[in-house]
Amino acid sequence: MVPSRAAVIAVTALAPISWGTTYAVTTEFLPADRPLFTGLMRALPAGLALLALTRTLPTGAWWWRSAVLGALNIGAFFPLLFLAAYRLPGGVAAVVGSVGPLFVIGLATLLLGERPTARALLAAVAAVFGVSLVVLNAGAAFDLVGVVAGLLSSASMAAGTVLTKRWGRPEGVGPLVMTAWQLTAGGLLIAPVAFLVEGAPPALDGEALLGYAYLALVNTAVGYWLWFRGIERLTATSVMLLGPLSPITAAVVGWAALGQALGPVQVVGMAVAVTATVLGQVAPRRRPPLAVEDLPPTGAVPPPAVPPAGAVPRAQARP
């Protein structure tokens, strides 16, 4: 039984919703000031676990394709995202990250031939506006390095999403295997950066181990599997427009579990962002195919053209 489009969208949306819990788990259970190590612990254990489960390695061109996709979706995305988070207030970083759908719309036009619609552009802009209402405050500061890192992280994820859609997957290989390849490749790219920048791994207590286990299994292994599965079944733009659900979830979890304030402006912003997300999932209308009775029979000779009233036949018009 083929799932409906609404069901695919709903399941895919669980990925950014799970990513929205990252901030709460990180601040409550994990060592402070170790963002790269956290990114490594999210990606590499999850990738290795999925590799052990699926027991399938890339072949041929998929060795370098997996490395490219793993770098864009994980290996470059995580460090740039964490750099932006450290250089910018959380709200500003979230707003910069929410421009991802605009990058996808441009890349999908170039690489996939997806014609951008006015509805998609409106949804992407409205999503940025809604997220800004949710997370920004009057004292938000902007740092050039942080903004550039945030934009590059969004562009990296957007390029990974579009290339994942363009390349598809090898015959007989499912989304779970593709997830394993990308998480492993991305984790291996993060590992040397994490050790060079942050040094040896920190000592971990029971809470930290549980936190990392949640991030690796639920937040990353399952989350990215759902994401890549959605890319395969939906348009790249439609999938990326689910991204604003991540900062919205982070705000709701912060309010419910961490005691953070959530005022009327934030509620309005959530409504705008959710509306934009729903708007971006509306499939464009397609022209209905011609009915069989509307088509001319095979081999039929078209009727002769009838000249308009008052026209002079060509033979009579000669001098």
Automatic annotation (TrEMBL):
TM segment ranges: 36-54, 66-86, 92-113, 120-138, 144-164, 176-197, 209-227, 239-258, 264-283
A Pfam family: EamA
EamA domain ranges (all copies): 10-135, 145-279
Cellular localization per UniProt: Membrane
Keyword Transmembrane included in the entry's annotation: yes
Recorded topology in the membrane: Multi-pass membrane protein
Alphabetical list of InterPro entries matching this protein: AA-Vitamin_Transporters, EamA_dom, EmrE-like
Cell cycle among keywords: no
UniProt keyword list: Membrane, Transmembrane, Transmembrane helix
Region annotated Disordered, chain positions: 290-319
Bias (Low complexity) ranges: 308-319
SUPFAM superfamilies named among the record's database cross-references: Multidrug resistance efflux transporter EmrE (SSF103481)
GO CC list: membrane
PANTHER family tied to this protein: EAMA DOMAIN-CONTAINING PROTEIN, INNER MEMBRANE TRANSPORTER
Homology family: Belongs to the EamA transporter family.
Name listed for the protein in its UniProt record: Putative inner membrane transporter yiJE
Organism: Streptomyces rubrolavendulae
